[in-house]
Write a structure and sequence with these properties.
Largest sheet: 4 strands, parallel
Number of helices: 5
Oligomer: single chain
Radius of gyration: 15 Å
Bound molecules: ligand DLZ
Helix content: 40-55%
Number of strands: 4
Length: 156
């Protein structure tokens, strides 16, 4: 954990409904993030039946799936998981930028917090460190989701 990462709060998630959208591109790494996030949510008391997971082809599809989920399942919070690794085209930059903006837009348009769990890495090694290593980020995304779900419950 870096010095600027906030310490996770202890939040009881028993009343929360969580939607997760996970990309299949770079599937092994995304599955690791998904596993970490799922375990953290369940440890915080979120009921397994209240965690809905939907797969999409790649990170580029995450915003539309998140938007559909916000409308159909009315979750308290949404998490988008994906791994973008720099390639030799500009596709990486385009998707990283567009998906980050679109996820924010969905959050604001639907009044449902959306956690951007799309890892943007320079290379395979960096991606592995962020998804599989000691500083893997799946659990952090879940803690952020719990905090935002609690805030939504308080302020809605
Ligand atoms: C096409 C593509 C490429 C080159 N790289 C990635 C990646 O590193 N991570 C990821 O999640 N998805 C990638 N994709 C797929 C796009 O997200 C998307 O599925 C396609 O462009 C079709 O819209």
């Amino acid at each position: 954990m870096s010095l600027d990462t906030p310490k996770p709060q202890s939040i009881n998630g028993a009343a929360f409904k969580v939607g997760i959208v996970a990309a299949r591109f770079n599937g092994v790494l995304v599955d690791a993030l998904l596993h970490q996030a799922y375990e953290t949510l369940v440890s915080a008391g979120v009921k397994e039946k209240n965690i809905r997971i939907h797969r999409v082809p790649g990170s580029n599809e995450a915003p539309s799936a998140v938007q559909l989920l916000a409308a159909s399942q009315k979750p308290d919070v949404l998490i988008a998981l994906g791994v973008l690794i720099r390639g030799d085209t500009i596709h990486y930059e385009v998707i990283a930028d567009a998906s980050a903006h679109a996820l924010q837009r969905v959050a604001l348009d639907t009044r449902t917090p959306v956690i951007n769990g799309i890892i943007v890495a320079e290379n395979q090694q960096q991606a592995k460190t962020r998804c599989l290593g000691k500083i893997a980020r799946g659990s952090e995304f879940a803690h952020t989701a719990l905090e935002m779900a609690a805030l939504k419950k308080t302020l809605s």
